[in-house]
Design goal:
The longest helix has 14 residues. The chain is 32% helix and 22% strand. The protein folds into two domains: 99 residues, P-loop containing nucleotide triphosphate hydrolases (Rossmann fold, 3-Layer(aba) Sandwich), CATH 3.40.50.300; 168 residues, P-loop containing nucleotide triphosphate hydrolases (Rossmann fold, 3-Layer(aba) Sandwich). It has 281 residues and is of the alpha/beta class. Bound molecules: adenosine-5'-triphosphate (ATP). This is Urea ABC transporter ATP-binding protein. It holds the Pfam family BCA_ABC_TP_C. GO terms for molecular function: ATP binding; ATP hydrolysis activity. Keywords: ATP-binding, Nucleotide-binding, Transport.
Amino acid sequence: MDTATATAGQPDPENHLGGQASYGRPASEGVDTSHGVILYLENVSVVFDGFRAINNLSLDIGVGELRCIIGPNGAGKTTMMDVITGKTRPTSGSAFFGQNLDLTKMSETQIANAGIGRKFQRPTVFEEHTVLENLELAMKADKRVWPILRARLNGEQADRIAEVLETVGLMQAYRRPAGLLSHGQKQWLEIGMLLMQEPKLLLLDEPVAGMTDAETERTGELFNTLKGKHSLMVVEHDMDFVAQIAQGGKVTVLCEGSVLAEGTMDEVQSDERVIEVYLGR
Ligand SMILES: Nc1ncnc2c1ncn2[C@@H]1O[C@H](COP(=O)(O)OP(=O)(O)OP(=O)(O)O)[C@@H](O)[C@H]1O
């Protein structure tokens, strides 16, 4: 596909986005991962009206790691992601992106621009736009520049879109309106939209909920190709899927706002406390 010719003859977006980095993302302070760690949560607590949704939670994620987070309903998984993305401020404790970026002092926009992308459970693609247009929109994160959406993509941007289409398996569907995609394809498109922002850390909340078995397996393959290039935190209740993507990596079990157990899938699955509170007998 030639995305450059698809929108040729229009003004160059780079001329309209003065001071912005490639793909329309504002330049941000770089994250220092020289210690091999992309995320540090240390003794984080979140208290809502006296209720401890997160209770002294400490967790590190390595650069390029795929970390699965499991745990019963109400364990604090969503609240933890809210802390990481700046939606909720911790009552106490620290949250750092790399060595240097204090997430508790950054706005949600600053955090997104620094390289943390979040995928909520339900797909939120622009249904009336094609797959290609959705990726273009994602590239231009600053919504004020949407009027120049039709602007000609430069070669690098067109290549990036093609690469993302290939990665998420939607190359054949690039002209299709997103509203006509299957549920799984919409989820992959939204992951593709996040990838356009070149996130360093991706937070994915129950990504395979509602997918068919085939879509779930394909999503697992996708995540296995993303790890290494990106760091991923995946919250999921589907244990077969967790086993597919965790492989020998770490799985963290949250319960009542704290880490109950951490280890390989085999280790946590045979942990009596995890069986008791989550997996069942
Ligand atoms: N804004 C809020 N005010 C009060 N309590 C809240 C708030 N947000 C979350 N909680 C409570 O904090 C606890 C943790 O909720 P959270 O949504 O983080 O859990 P979860 O592990 O994501 O659960 P699930 O697997 O069901 O999505 C729950 O008991 C929830 O009711």
